[in-house]
C-alpha cells in the first residue's frame, strides 16, 4: 500500500511537470473586421524561446510596421513564466475576405505553427473616434506625384520620371518608408542618385506647398503601345497637433501613419517611322557623331595596329550595336574589344561607345579600309540620318609579297635574296623503325599480385578507426550542435546574398546568420542575446574592440533598415561588412 502511494505521487508530479512545460505558440489580431482605411495589429506569441521564426506572407496587406519583438520573464511563487511576441502592423490592400496564414517557429528541435485567422475588410470607415488618426488629416494636405517628362515618346527615346512628395504648410511629416517600389516593365531604366534631400517651396494645383524630390529615373521604352509604370507607394509618419501643451506653452504633437501613392502612369510609345528607314538601321535614337580611325597608317608585316569604330553623342548608347568593320582577307583581324564611357543624366545617356579591332598585316602592300556607314533616328528632325567614315589606307612597308611561289619565297628587305630549298630537307625523318619485342613476365608474385592480396587486409584497421571516429563525433552532442549552428550561419549568409535587392528578406536572413554564428562560437542560447552580453563574451575571448563594434553596428542596422529607406548599394556594403566581420572574429576568438 505504501509503495502504491509513492508511485501515485511520482506519476502526479510527472504529469504536472509535463503540463507546465507544454509549448504554446499562437496568433492574435487586434480586430477581425476593419475598414479598408484602417490598421490591423497581429501578434505571434510563444511561452518558450525559439529560433528561425517565419511569418506568413501577408500578400493581401501592406506591412507598415514590424516585426517588433518583445520578451518578458517573471517568477511567481517559484514558477517561471516566459513570453516572446513578434508584432506586425498591417494595412489592407482592398476589400474582401482574407486569411492571415500560418507562422512557424522552431523550439527545442520541434517546429510549431499557428492557425489561420479569417479577416473581413469592408469599405472605408467614415467616422473615426481617434482624433489622432491619419484619416483626420485633410486629403489635400499630402500628395505623392510622379512627374513624367513625356507621355508619348518614340521607341528608345529617353523620358524622365521624378517623384515628388508635396506637403501643405500646416501638416508635419517626420519620416516615410517605401511600401511598393515603382516597376518599369518593358523599359530600360536607370535611377539617378540624389545627394541629400532638399525641402523646397512650390505650388501644386495652384496651392502653396513644400515639396521634396524622393526619386529620379531615366527610362527608355523597349516596346511600342501602352506601357505602364507601376506606382511608388509610401507609408508616411504624420505629426498631428493635440490639445495638450508642454511647460513652455508649445503644442504637443502625436504621430500617426498614412499611406500615399503616386498612382499608375500609362506611357503611349510611338513606333519609329517606316518611311526612309535605312536597311542597316540598328535602333540608334538620339543625336550622334561617328568616326573610324586607326592608331597608325604605316607599319611592317607582323606588326599590329588598332582600328577603332566609335559613336559619341546623346541617346540610347547602350541599346544598339555598332556597325562591323570589314577588312581585306590578307589582314589578320581579331575580335573587337567593346568599350563604353557613358554617363546617365536626367536628360538621358551621354558619352562614347567604341569597338577596337587589332589588325596584323601578313604581307607587304597597300590595303584600303572601305567606308563604314552608321544610321540613326534624329529626334529633333524626326527623320533618319546617315554618317559615313572616310576611306583609310594601311601601308605595309616591309614583309613578304602576297602570292609569291611556295618554292621560291622572296623576302622583302634592303637585300633581296632567293631562298633555295634542298631535296634533303626531310632527311631527319626516320623511315625504318628499330623495334624490340618486350619480354613478358608472370603476374604471380609480382608487385600488383601482392598489392591486390594484402590491400584489403591493410584497409580493415583503417575502416575500424574511421568508424570509431564517426561514433565519437555522433556522441559529441555539444560539438554537433555547434557545427549545426555554424552550417546555419553559412546557409543564412548565402540566403542573404541571394536576397540582395529585396530589403526585407535580405536583412531577416542577415540577422539570422549573425545570431547563429554567435551561437556556434560562444555556446549561448537565444534568450541570452543582448548587446552587453555579446560584448562581454567577445571581450573574454580576446576579440578586439573594433570587430565588436562592427558586429554590434550590423545588428543595429538589421533592425533599423526594416523601417527606413535603403539602397542596393547599402545592402551590398552591409553584406560585405558581415562577411568581413565574421572572418575577423573567427580568426581572433580564443
UniProtKB/TrEMBL annotation:
The keyword Nucleotide-binding is annotated on this UniProt entry: no
Regions crossing the membrane: 448-466
InterPro entries: BatD (IPR025738)
A Pfam short name: BatD
Keywords: Membrane, Signal, Transmembrane, Transmembrane helix
PANTHER family (UniProt xref): BATD, PROTEIN BATD-RELATED
Annotated protein name in UniProt: Oxygen tolerance
The organism of origin for this protein: Bizionia paragorgiae
Amino acid at each position: 500500500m505504501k509503495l502504491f502511494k509513492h508511485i501515485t505521487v511520482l506519476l502526479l508530479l510527472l504529469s504536472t511537470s509535463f503540463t507546465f512545460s507544454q509549448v504554446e505558440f499562437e496568433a492574435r489580431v487586434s480586430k477581425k473586421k476593419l475598414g479598408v482605411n484602417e490598421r490591423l495589429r497581429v501578434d505571434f506569441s510563444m511561452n518558450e524561446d525559439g529560433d528561425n521564426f517565419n511569418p506568413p506572407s501577408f500578400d493581401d496587406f501592406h506591412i507598415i510596421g514590424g516585426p517588433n519583438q518583445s520578451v518578458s520573464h517573471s517568477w511567481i511563487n517559484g514558477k517561471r513564466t516566459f513570453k516572446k511576441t513578434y508584432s506586425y502592423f498591417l494595412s489592407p490592400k482592398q476589400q474582401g475576405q482574407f486569411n492571415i496564414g500560418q507562422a512557424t517557429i522552431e523550439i527545442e528541435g520541434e517546429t510549431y505553427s499557428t492557425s489561420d485567422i479569417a479577416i473581413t475588410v469592408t469599405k472605408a470607415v467614415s467616422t473615426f473616434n481617434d482624433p489622432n488618426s491619419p484619416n483626420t488629416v485633410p486629403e489635400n494636405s499630402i500628395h505623392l506625384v510622379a512627374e513624367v517628362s513625356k507621355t508619348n515618346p518614340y521607341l528608345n527615346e529617353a523620358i524622365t520620371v521624378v517623384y515628388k512628395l508635396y506637403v501643405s504648410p500646416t501638416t508635419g511629416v517626420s519620416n516615410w518608408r517605401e511600401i511598393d517600389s515603382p516597376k518599369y516593365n518593358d523599359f530600360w531604366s536607370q535611377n539617378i542618385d540624389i545627394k541629400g534631400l532638399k525641402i523646397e517651396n512650390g505650388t501644386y494645383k495652384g496651392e502653396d506647398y513644400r515639396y521634396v524630390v524622393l526619386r529620379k529615373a531615366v527610362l527608355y521604352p523597349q516596346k511600342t503601345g501602352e506601357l505602364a509604370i507601376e506606382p511608388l507607394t509610401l507609408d508616411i509618419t504624420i505629426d498631428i497637433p493635440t490639445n495638450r501643451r508642454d511647460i513652455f506653452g508649445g503644442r504637443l504633437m502625436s504621430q500617426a501613419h498614412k499611406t500615399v501613392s503616386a498612382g499608375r502612369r500609362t506611357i503611349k510609345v510611338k513606333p519609329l517611322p517606316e518611311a526612309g528607314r535605312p536597311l542597316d538601321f540598328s535602333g540608334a535614337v538620339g543625336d550622334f557623331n561617328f568616326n573610324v580611325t586607326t592608331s597608325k597608317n604605316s607599319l611592317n608585316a607582323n606588326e599590329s595596329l588598332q582600328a577603332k569604330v566609335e559613336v559619341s553623342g546623346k541617346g540610347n548608347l547602350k541599346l544598339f550595336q555598332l556597325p562591323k568593320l570589314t577588312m581585306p582577307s590578307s589582314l589578320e583581324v581579331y575580335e573587337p574589344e567593346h568599350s563604353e564611357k557613358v554617363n546617365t543624366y536626367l536628360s538621358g545617356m551621354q558619352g562614347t561607345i567604341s569597338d577596337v579591332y587589332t589588325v596584323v598585316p601578313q604581307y607587304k602592300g597597300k590595303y584600303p579600309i572601305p567606308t563604314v556607314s552608321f544610321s540613326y533616328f534624329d529626334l529633333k528632325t524626326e527623320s533618319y540620318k546617315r554618317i559615313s567614315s572616310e576611306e583609310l589606307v594601311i601601308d605595309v612597308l616591309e614583309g613578304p609579297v602576297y602570292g609569291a611561289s611556295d618554292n621560291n619565297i622572296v623576302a622583302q628587305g634592303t637585300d633581296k635574296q632567293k631562298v633555295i630549298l634542298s631535296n634533303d630537307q626531310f632527311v631527319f625523318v626516320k623511315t625504318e623503325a628499330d623495334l624490340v619485342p618486350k619480354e613478358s613476365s608472370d603476374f604471380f608474385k609480382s608487385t600488383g599480385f601482392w598489392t591486390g592480396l594484402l590491400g584489403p587486409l591493410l584497409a580493415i584497421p583503417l575502416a575500424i578507426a574511421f568508424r570509431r571516429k564517426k561514433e565519437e563525433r555522433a556522441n559529441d552532442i555539444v560539438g554537433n550542435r555547434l557545427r549545426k549552428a555554424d552550417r546555419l550561419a553559412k546557409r543564412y549568409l548565402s540566403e542573404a546574398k541571394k536576397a540582395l535587392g529585396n530589403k526585407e528578406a535580405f536583412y531577416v536572413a542577415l540577422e539570422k546568420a549573425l545570431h547563429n554564428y554567435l551561437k556556434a562560437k560562444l555556446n549561448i542560447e537565444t534568450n541570452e542575446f543582448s548587446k552587453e552580453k555579446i560584448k562581454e563574451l567577445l571581450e573574454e575571448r580576446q576579440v578586439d574592440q573594433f570587430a565588436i563594434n562592427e558586429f554590434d553596428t550590423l545588428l543595429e542596422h538589421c533592425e533599423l533598415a526594416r523601417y527606413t529607406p535603403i539602397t542596393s548599394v547599402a545592402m551590398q556594403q552591409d553584406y560585405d561588412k558581415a562577411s568581413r566581420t565574421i572572418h575577423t572574429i573567427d580568426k581572433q576568438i580564443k
